[in-house]
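Task: sequence design from structure.
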């Protein structure tokens, strides 16, 4: 499911019929999403460290914002934030200090951008396409990656 090491979200066919759960528990990941969708983000079980400002790159569908927001994060699409049609380097410079994470499906960004000294991080969704139906199954891995991401780092989630 995910290539993030030391996964906090796992799938085991013996636990909840393979539904994603938090490692070492039988607590389904969906329970967290349901909790947050109920408007509980201010009292997130992960505290304020869980709540991040996430900028969604133009290469991802606008509808993905709902899934990311359901995890308890403040998020906006690059276009709505006024960063439409910006090249990656300019987008990262504009995001610096304003956003915690740039969410993208651009697999080449890690080779094109120097992240040294940056406070904004990049989370890359590696899906078959950038269509919503291919991205939604990556949301548990995305949540997991966001739990462990560090400033100035690039994390990739999804199939190899």
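Answer:
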């Amino acid at each position: 499911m995910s290539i993030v090491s030391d996964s906090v979200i796992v799938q085991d066919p013996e636990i909840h019929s393979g539904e994603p759960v938090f490692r070492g528990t039988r607590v389904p990941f969906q329970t967290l999403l349901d909790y947050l969708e109920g408007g509980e983000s201010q009292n997130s079980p992960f505290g304020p460290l869980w709540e991040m400002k996430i900028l969604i790159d133009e290469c991802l569908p606008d509808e993905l914002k709902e899934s990311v927001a359901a995890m308890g994060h403040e998020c906006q699409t690059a276009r709505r934030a006024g960063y439409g049609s910006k090249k990656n380097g300019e987008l990262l410079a504009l995001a610096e200090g304003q956003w915690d994470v740039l969410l993208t499906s651009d697999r080449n960004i890690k080779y094109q951008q120097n992240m040294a000294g940056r406070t904004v991080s990049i989370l890359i969704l590696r899906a078959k396409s950038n269509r919503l139906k291919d991205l939604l199954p990556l949301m548990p891995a995305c949540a997991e990656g966001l739990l462990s991401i560090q400033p100035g780092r690039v994390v990739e989630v999804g199939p190899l």
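Residues 9-157 form a domain with the Rossmann fold fold (CATH 3.40.50).
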